[in-house]
Design goal:
Number of strands: 8
Radius of gyration: 18 Å
Strand content: 15-25%
Strand order of the largest sheet: 1-3-2-6-7-5-8-4
Shape: globular
Distance between the termini: 40 Å
Number of helices: 7
Largest sheet: 8 strands, antiparallel, barrel
Structural class: alpha+beta
Helix content: 25-40%
Length: 252
Amino acid sequence: MLVSYRATPSAGFHLPRLAQASYDDRATFSAEVLKEIVPKIITANGIDAATLRTEVMPGGYLLKTNASLQTEGDLDDAAADRLAGSLGYVFRQYRVLTSRLNDTTGKTGFVVVRFPQGSLNATVAQRFFEAADATKKGLGGGYAVFGDEQIFLNATNSEGKPYSGLDDASFQDGLRRAAVSFGSPKPMVSSLGNATARFIGNDWQRSTRGEGYQTLLGGSDGELVRKLDEISRCYAFLLAKTADSKGWAKDE
C-alpha cells in the first residue's frame, strides 16, 4: 500500500506566505518532518516504523508540483486508512491518498511512467505533468512519485466518476502517448491497469477539530487521538520554527 501526503499543512496555521515557498524549502521541511514526526505517527498506530519505507518525493496537484511524502509498506486496507487518517490529522491535510497498484479487484485506472534511474526530479516530473495535460486535458489532476516512477491514478469521486473527466482507457492512452512524445530523459510506461485508491479526509472548514479523522481513529477521547494530539504539538513547534526562519508566517 502506498500512502501519499504532504508535510506542509493545508489548514489550521496562519502561514500567508507558505504558498510562495520554494520546492527546495518545502522538501527540506518535509525531510525534517520525516525524521522527527512521521516515525512517531507510525509507532502510535502500533506499526514498526522500520517495516515501512518513506521518501520525500515530488507530488503534483492541478498542474503544480510540490514536495510530498510517500510511505510504502505491507499494510491491509484498515491499517493503511488509519495511518492515512493519522497523518492527515497531524499535518492538517484535507485529504490523504491511499493506493494499491495491480489490484485486480480495484476500480481505479492507473499508469506508471518510469524514467531512467536517477533522472526523475521535481523539474522533470513537472515537465511531464504539463506534457501529459497538453496531450489530453484531464491528465493534469495529480500524480505521485516513488523512486524512478511517476504514478498517475484516475481517481474518482464519491459517485465513482473520475475527477479527470476521462474513462480509464482514454486516461491510459493519453499517458502512453505523452510518454512516447516526451523528450529527454526518455520515459516509458512500465505498467498500467486497475488499482484500489481512495481518499481519507476531513473538511477543516466545517470540522475544525478534525472530526472526520477522529471518527476513523476511534473518537476524540480515544487512545490513538490522544497520542496524535501530543505528536501534533511537536509538529506545531517544528513548523513554527521553520516558518519563522523562512518567513512563511509574515503577513503579505
